[in-house]
């Protein structure tokens, strides 16, 4: 069934809050259209601000910055200096675990010198990038924002993704802060400091890749590399108003020897940036693919699973519905469909998989990278015994017999893998049956919530977990602000359809525009510094 009727916002919100079941949503919305009920949206701040056009270097996307340096309009050193000054001014956001100013400036000077030598240059030459602090680097410790890895200089050396970025000419800008050991969706961290949301520093940034998201949103860096297990790229991207890509699992390099892991079945690295063009650039570089162009909107078929649209926070529902209206008006076919069994299969596979794998993969990392004074690696018991975050400690200890927990039995784990396989089959069948290009839903069902009272993990991963379990590519795309906080759409497609998904996302971004910068990116930060 095509989603074609012109709904009113007030009645749509009522149906979403009530949790309307599939098969009734469209008919109710069609009836609502006939009532003529309406709401005035002139006072809502969901609209976008287009790119400034005034040449402000902080507003440059990765693609724009690379082009400016290539033309000679921008020097890598002056660019790095400007971004470092921004990082220092906004240090209260706690976006970084480590930041070596002199190393960055020296790398930028060398990039400028190499450009003048008339030699072949990489596609990212001179571009500063933030790296989540689970990614092994030889220029800075890799700590996963946890006490037990303080000062950890990994024996296994650089992660492959770092070598790819360096070969392309990128400048690693710093190691980004995060939820401790990646084990949470808020980036509240009592050890390294909580990552604050640039749109309101009293709110969470999301996680676990909160640092890269906050850095990009605050105009400290044009892009960053995070990692996603259950939504850890897309959740902070959504809450901080930047674009985030979870690639198809396995399409980006990453293993438990050079990236502090949770789950080999679910983990993947992924880029975060202020434009989908940037996401496309990084994905093309890492996967050695061909350039993707924005998709035309007319004729696209986007699936709406009602469960993903139920019980939304009011601001999310307001902005997301307006976005659906805009898409439909431009010829996008919105197809409502249930996917029977999707929620049950996700639940049967999600937590058992990463609970079983988390301790095993983490032990493999510790064995490959850490060394105590006696030459032996840090044990997982020693590491977890020092964890500073109560939620992270409780999660690990609950499945570790050494702390009185109960390990996930192997038969439960194998059953979870079977459920995952069935989930992938079910999703594939419905994509084919409804001729879908992608699924569309709010990336997160809430906006950023207060650090003092954050949303729980089940709420934050509600619309990201299924795609993560199934290994699907997913994009978080900001579409507007409500009460000063970002709202984003999520798009998911079949595994391997990353390029097609990026094309769709780029097409949607042309419609919705680029999200305006948070006021603190340019304004007076005196009040924020007191937080």
What does this structure look like?
This protein is an alpha/beta fold and 531 residues long. The protein folds into three domains: 2-43 and 301-336, no CATH class; 57-298 and 496-529, Amidase signature (AS) domain (Amidase signature (AS) enzymes, Alpha-Beta Complex), CATH 3.90.1300.10; 343-419, no CATH class. The protein contains 18 helices and 14 strands. A twelve-stranded mixed β-sheet has the order 1-11-10-12-14-13-8-9-7-3-4-2, with helices on both faces. It has a two-stranded antiparallel sheet with strand order 5-6. Strand 13 and strand 14 (485-492) form a beta hairpin. The radius of gyration is 22 Å and the shape is globular. Mean pLDDT is 90; it is low at 1-55 and 526-531.
Per DSSP, the total helix count is 18
The name of the CATH architecture of the largest domain is: Alpha-Beta Complex
Question: What is the CATH superfamily of the largest domain?
Answer: Amidase signature (AS) domain
Using only C-alpha atoms, the radius of gyration works out to 22 Å
Question: What is the CATH T-level topology of the largest domain?
Answer: Amidase signature (AS) enzymes
Structure classification: alpha/beta
The largest sheet, given as strand count, sense and whether it forms a barrel, is:
12 strands, mixed
Distance between the termini: 50 Å
Strand order of the largest sheet: 1-11-10-12-14-13-8-9-7-3-4-2
Q: Provide mean pLDDT, rounded.
A: 90
Helix content: 25-40%
Per DSSP E runs of 2 or more residues, the count of β-strands stands at 14
How many domains, as an integer? Answer: 3
Note poorly predicted spans: 1-55, 526-531
Using the alpha-carbon principal axes, give the shape: globular
CATH class of the largest domain: Alpha Beta
Give the DSSP E fraction (strand runs of 2 or more residues): 5-15%
């Amino acid at each position: 069934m095509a989603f074609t009727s012109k709904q009113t916002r007030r009645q749509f919100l009522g149906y979403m809050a009530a949790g309307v079941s599939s098969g009734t949503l469209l008919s109710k919305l069609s009836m609502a259209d006939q009532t003529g009920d309406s709401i005035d949206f002139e006072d809502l701040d969901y609209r976008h601000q287009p790119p400034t056009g005034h040449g402000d270097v902080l507003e440059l996307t990765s693609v724009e910055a690379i082009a400016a340096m290539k033309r000679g309009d921008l020097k890598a050193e002056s660019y790095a200096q400007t971004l470092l000054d921004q990082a220092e001014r906004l240090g209260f956001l706690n976006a970084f675990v480590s930041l070596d100013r002199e190393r960055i400036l020296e790398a930028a000077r060398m990039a400028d010198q190499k450009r003048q030598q008339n030699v072949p240059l990489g596609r990212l030459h001179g571009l500063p990038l933030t790296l989540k602090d689970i990614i092994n680097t030889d220029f800075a410790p890799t700590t996963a924002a946890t006490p037990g890895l303080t000062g950890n200089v990994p024996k296994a050396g650089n992660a492959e993704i770092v070598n790819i970025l360096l070969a392309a000419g990128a400048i690693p800008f710093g190691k980004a802060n995060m939820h401790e050991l990646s084990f949470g969706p808020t980036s509240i961290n009592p050890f390294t400091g909580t990552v604050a949301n640039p749109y309101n520093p009293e709110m969470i940034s999301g996680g676990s890749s909160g640092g890269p998201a906050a850095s990009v949103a605050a105009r400290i860096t044009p892009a960053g590399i995070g990692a996603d297990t259950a939504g850890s790229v897309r959740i902070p991207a959504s809450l901080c108003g930047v674009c985030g890509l979870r690639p198809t699992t396995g399409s980006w390099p990453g293993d438990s020897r050079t990236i502090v892991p949770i789950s080999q079945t679910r983990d993947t690295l992924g880029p975060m940036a202020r434009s989908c063009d940037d996401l496309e650039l990084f994905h093309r570089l890492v996967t050695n693919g061909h350039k993707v162009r924005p998709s035309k909107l007319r004729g696209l078929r986007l699936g709406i699973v009602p469960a993903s649209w139920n019980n939304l926070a009011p601001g999310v529902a307001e902005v997301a519905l307006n976005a659906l209206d805009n898409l439909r008006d431009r010829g996008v076919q919105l197809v409502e469909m249930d996917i029977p069994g999707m929620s049950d299969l996700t639940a049967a596979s999600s937590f058992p998989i990463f609970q079983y794998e988390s301790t095993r993969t983490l032990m493999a990392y510790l064995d490959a990278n850490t060394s105590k004074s006696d030459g032996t690696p840090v044990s997982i018991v020693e590491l977890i015994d020092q964890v500073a975050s109560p939620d992270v400690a409780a999660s690990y200890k609950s499945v570790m017999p050494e702390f009185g927990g109960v390990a996930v039995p192997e038969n439960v784990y194998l059953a979870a893998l079977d459920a995952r396989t069935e989930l992938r089959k079910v999703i594939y069948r419905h994509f084919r049956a409804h001729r879908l290009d992608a699924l569309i839903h709010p990336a997160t069902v809430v906006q950023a919530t207060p650090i003092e009272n954050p949303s729980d993990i089940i709420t934050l991963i509600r619309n990201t977990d299924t795609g993560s379990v199934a290994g699907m590519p997913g994009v978080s795309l900001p579409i507007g602000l409500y009460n000063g906080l970002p709202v984003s759409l999520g798009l998911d497609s079949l595994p391997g359809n990353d390029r097609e998904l990026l094309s769709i996302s780029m097409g949607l971004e042309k419609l919705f525009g680029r999200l305006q910068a948070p006021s603190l990116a340019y304004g007076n930060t005196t009040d924020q510094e007191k937080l």
